[in-house]
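Lecture 7 notes: from sequence to structure.
We start with the chain below.
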Amino acid sequence: MSRRRTLAEEGWHDALQERKPLDIASSSAANDRSRAAKAATIRDVAEHARVSVASVSRVLNGSDAITESTRQRVLDAVAQLRYVPHVGARSLSTSRTDTIGVILPDLFGEFFSELIRGMDLAARAHGKHLIVSSSHDDAEDTLTAVRSMRGRVDGMIVLSPHVRAANLAADVAGRMPVLLMNGGMEEAGRPSIVIDNHGGAVTAVQHLIATGRRRIAHIRGPEGNIEADQRAAGYASALDGQAPIVVEGEFSQASGHRAATALLAMEQRPDAVFAANDMMAVGALLAFQEAGVRCPEDIAVVGFDDVPIASLMRPALTTMRVNIAEIGRRGVERLIGLVRADAAGEPSDAACETVRPVLVERQSTAAASSARFNNG
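Predicted structure tokens for the same chain:
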């Protein structure tokens, strides 16, 4: 046993003696692969690029105080090591998260899909990310969402149809920049973007009167919703002596269908309907088609918003266009400006920006005389 162990030991000794010197280049490449597999750190990048950690940080933060050759070495090292900056650590050092919070009353429906699309395009163009939450159209849920985002975002966009909820949200946010959207914030003295709901409704009703309609009904949005209230007020002020005909809705297609069914049950039907948003107008069109009522020959219909489905309906829906995606894009750009001003200690932009809806005429409001002639 002792002899066999000695021979084994001699064999291992000979084998070790015959080994080649260590390949330093191969070892370095292996180390790089090992670092990449373990998620490279900023120190790994600095070592690979032969610069200081501070230089790497300046390159990653877009600082101009760096030479072009150093910047390129750092970027090459980042690519080779597949380095991903740690967002949490970066936010601690820069006091920025490059993230924008968005609180909407709902996430369902074409209006909010278009709004988020515009916001996302603008955020990506500026290298920002979005965190989107729904308040479910509830003031307490709005405040809860605001509190949950504090410290996680650089600023917030709050869309609320309730003035009190929007103002409370801005107060709870503290010093964080907040942009309010919709809800008639002109009197609040806060940065905001609002739609001229009253003016848009007046234009819609005047258009129906101009096409010869004399019994114009209104499917309004929910009570207490500032946009619904403003559009209802615009409808009433534009009737020009006609008796108002108002039925309740909830800004949903189903509520528009129910409201239209109620209008059809009236002893004297209206000859036109102004719905406070497009989805209720779509519901009304479907109810009329099911009842064999022709649009626009028997009843003309106008909506509000110009969501994508409006142009796809048959008849295509006349509506008040507010360019939803553009409002979303503009909201993000306004907020980014507020965040930058806050970081630089500059005065904030507290302006209220008003969006004026534009009438888009389509088949659902062809003139009463020509509609009857074409079908006579």
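Points to note: The longest strand covers residues 99-104. The chain has a mean pLDDT of 84.
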